[in-house]
From TrEMBL:
Its EC number is 3.1.3.16. It catalyses: O-phospho-L-seryl-[protein] + H2O = L-seryl-[protein] + phosphate. It comes from the Bacteria. Residues 1-17 have a biased composition (Basic and acidic residues). InterPro entries: Bact_Sigma-Reg, GAF-like_dom_sf, HATPase_C_sf, HATPase_dom, PPM-type-like_dom_sf, PPM-type_phosphatase-like_dom. The lineage of its organism: Bacteria, Bacillati, Actinomycetota, Actinomycetes, Kitasatosporales. This is protein-serine/threonine phosphatase. Residues 70-91 have a biased composition (Low complexity). Keywords: ATP-binding, Hydrolase, Kinase, Magnesium, Manganese, Metal-binding, Nucleotide-binding, Phosphoprotein, Protein phosphatase, Transferase.
Length: 721
């Protein structure tokens, strides 16, 4: 790329020098501006300002710039300022400088504009002894064809260079949101512009916020970076004995325990970066790095503590090769800025990681860890947050086993995407579980949820769909509170959107909810979901529902009319319909495959509450087991049925129900009109009763008792065969 040279002419009030009319030195043939030679200055002194054209004293000789040796710079300057012997007044062009395009303007060009550096980039550093021309990958001069000297990173010659570098580096570090990104940003920003290698040590474990660390201070090598192998030289930054593989992490100790009162502890306590040649750092580096890594001398290494908001959290070591110019005193300020920004970013990343962990744990506890396996129905679920940064939301789903082998299917959505929404969702989910345990009708459950939402606050709005599936009757009862309608996929591949009353959202108050009862044929699949699956900025709700219905029908066609698609694969296919712009909201998905219980696998009787009821229950159970070919279970079943029925008829005032269900297990249910639940207790030797539930607990696979609106049900299960 050729850069255009712009020369500003002096104004009328500026004094013209005697040599002002002399033609200026021509630009480099490659289009690059000549480098401005600057005098050397003592460490810590302010940099010399470039002289203006009108103020330059006559006869002043330029001084030798950094990186040049002998009199080469003086000769080049002389050849620039001396007129040609021919007397024509034209200046003799200087030898072609191998400097890059963005080198500094020469002193003979008054106030030449420097090219603007690329935004967000690290300033390019040309070579010290001879800069490689831009775009020349062959390492030869394009005019002469001769080889160019080795190009190494050039030191920052002005405070402006350092400021631009620090600004670009800190912006790169600030882009990271987690620990690895921030440490990687520090390494990539400094190598090779500021140093040839870097080692970053962090405290293990890292304290979070105001958490006070316990135990000794241990530093762990988090990341290393260096110039690639093909750019190394024989005298580069290498260990005494080079190990394999060739990585800095293999050359230094991974863990370092900082001894209280030791040299490393003193350097870290000092906070400010120090040269490795300083006495304190010379004693601290072996403790940090071990004995295998050799650090170049002559101010070619800087040890910078990483201090967060409250305490030191690590250290960074910047290293240059021996053939590269040593660090200057001002570079300590650069290292301090890099260390400060990195440490504060690490502090924030650790705090963000802790908050993300808390959010994940909160979301995990709010949703069911595993779904139950009720009789006659198979379940699958999915949950996707709105984005990676919003890990919690107000969507939830649940499956609650009910008496009589029924199951309640719940899906809801609280407004918002925050910890507050998740907390409200948790309260509503707990309330729904409690109400389901009372075996209330679906519309009554929604009514009580509405009252609970109003008690939580006037702006606590949510939608919810509550359904109860009965595998014996092959029926499902659904009540809706402003939620998208469910979709039923039939066995033949037909998908339909169920017509349920929409209802008002939970939290509105004063609204009557309505329930509908629909057929739930065996082999059908019911899909409950939140609006995040069907609504986005690119489509409305009903368009998304129609696309969902078409997706389910197309998926069912792949397995044929007689075989429903696998439930887990069906959920994955549903989520695959989401596009890049369809993740504006959380997504909760609950799929239920209705297997049902055949009428031939059900036996049901009514027993009058009288003394002969236990004996009649034993005979009925024996006949049912004989009809099912389960005679080997007769003794256990008769014993347990007799105990449970005896307890029921003792206090019941209405007929007692007895039901046997044959599925993968044998389930027995006894219901009565007494709401008080039985409790397992240890009977004393002199007690005449109190041993019935003890026998049930010993012999049954599982057992339990559930309170109903009309009484209670005591049930137990036995393994078949």
């Amino acid at each position: 790329m050729d850069s255009t040279r712009v020369t500003e002419h002096p104004t009328s009030h500026e004094r013209r020098q005697s040599g002002a009319g002399r033609p200026s030195t021509p630009a480099d043939p490659r289009g690059a501006l000549l480098r401005t030679p600057e005098p050397q200055r003592a460490p810590g002194a302010l940099p010399a300002q470039p002289a203006r054209t009108g103020d330059a004293p006559t006869g002043s000789a330029p001084s030798t710039p950094y990186g040049q040796h002998g009199s080469s710079a003086t000769q080049a300057s002389a050849s620039t300022d001396t007129p040609s012997p021919s007397g024509t007044g034209a200046s003799t062009p200087p030898p072609a400088s191998p400097g890059p395009e963005h080198s500094q303007p020469s002193a003979s060009e008054p106030d030449a504009h420097r090219p603007r550096p690329a935004p967000e980039g690290i300033p390019a550093q040309p070579g010290m002894e001879g800069d490689r021309p831009s775009g020349n990958s062959t390492g030869t001069d394009r005019r002469t064809g001769q080889g160019l000297p080795h190009a190494g990173p050039m030191p920052m010659r002005r405070d402006g260079d350092r400021l631009r570098f620090v600004g670009a580096a800190t912006r790169r570090i600030a882009r990271g949101i987690d620990l690895d990104e921030i440490v990687m940003g520090l390494c990539r920003a400094t190598v090779p512009t500021f140093s040839d290698a870097i080692l970053v040590y962090l405290r293990d474990p890292l304290p979070v916020g105001d958490e006070r660390p316990t135990g000794p201070l241990v530093l762990r090598l988090r990341r290393t970076d260096r110039i690639p192998e093909e750019r190394d030289t024989e005298n580069g930054f290498m260990p005494a004995l080079r190990p394999e593989p060739n990585e800095l992490s293999a050359m230094t100790a991974e863990l370092c325990e900082v001894r209280p009162g030791g040299a490393l502890a003193e350097v870290l306590r000092g906070v400010r970066p120090v040269f490795a040649d300083a006495p304190a750092a010379r004693a601290a580096l072996p403790e940090l790095l071990g004995d295998e890594l050799i650090v170049p001398t002559g101010q070619r290494a800087i040890l910078a503590p990483l201090r967060g908001r409250r305490r030191v959290i690590g250290a960074a070591l910047f290293v240059r090769r021996p053939e590269r110019m040593a660090f200057e005193t001002d570079d300590l300020l650069v290292a301090a800025q890099l260390a400060t920004h990195s440490a504060l970013g690490i502090d924030k990343a650790v705090l963000y990681g802790r908050e993300a962990y808390i959010a994940d744990e909160l979301q995990r506890t709010m949703l069911p860890e595993t779904l139950p396996r009720p009789t006659g129905v198979r379940l699958a679920s999915r949950y996707l947050p709105a984005a990676e940064t919003a890990r919690v939301g107000g969507d939830w789903y649940d499956a609650i086993p009910l008496p009589g082998s029924r199951v309640a299917l719940v899906v809801g959505d609280v407004m918002g995407h925050s910890m507050t929404s998740a907390a409200i969702m948790g309260q509503l989910r707990t309330t729904a579980q409690t109400l389901a345990g009372l075996d209330l009708p679906p519309q009554e459950v929604l009514h009580h949820l509405d009252e609970q939402a109003q008690r939580l606050g006037t702006d606590r709005m949510a939608t919810c769909l509550y359904a109860v599936y009965d595998p014996v009757a092959h029926r499902i009862t659904i009540a809706n509170a402003g939620h998208p309608p469910p979709v039923l996929l039939h066995l033949g591949g037909r998908a339909e959107v169920l017509r349920v009353p929409p209802g008002a959202p939970i939290g509105v108050g004063g609204v009557d909810f309505e329930a509908v009862e629909l057929d739930a044929p065996a082999g059908a699949t019911l899909l409950l979901y939140t609006d995040g699956l069907v609504e986005s900025r690119l489509r409305d709700v009903w368009t998304g529902i129609e696309q969902l219905r078409e997706k389910l029908a197309a998926t069912a066609q792949l397995t044929g009319p007689d075989h429903p698609p696998p439930l887990e694969a069906l959920c994955d296919e549903v989520l695959d319909m989401l596009g890049p712009g369809d993740r504006d909201d959380d997504i909760a998905l609950l799929a239920a495959r209705f297997d049902g219980i055949a009428p031939s696998d059900v036996a049901y009787w009514f027993l009058e509450p009288e003394d002969a009821a236990p004996g009649r229950a034993r005979r009925l159970a024996r006949r049912a087991l004989s009809r099912w070919g389960l005679e080997d279970m007769s003794d256990s079943v008769e014993l347990l049925v007799s105990e449970v029925v005896t307890n029921a008829v003792r206090y019941a005032s209405r007929p007692v129900t007895l039901r046997l269900l044959r599925t993968d297990v044998l389930r027995c249910e006894v219901g009565d009109d007494v709401p008080q639940l039985p409790r397992l207790r240890q009977a004393r030797a002199t007690d005449e009763g109190g041993r019935g539930l003890y026998l049930v607990n010993k012999l049954a696979r599982r057992w339990g008792a559930t309170r109903l609106s009309t009484g209670k049900v005591v049930w137990f299960e036995l393994n078949r065969g």
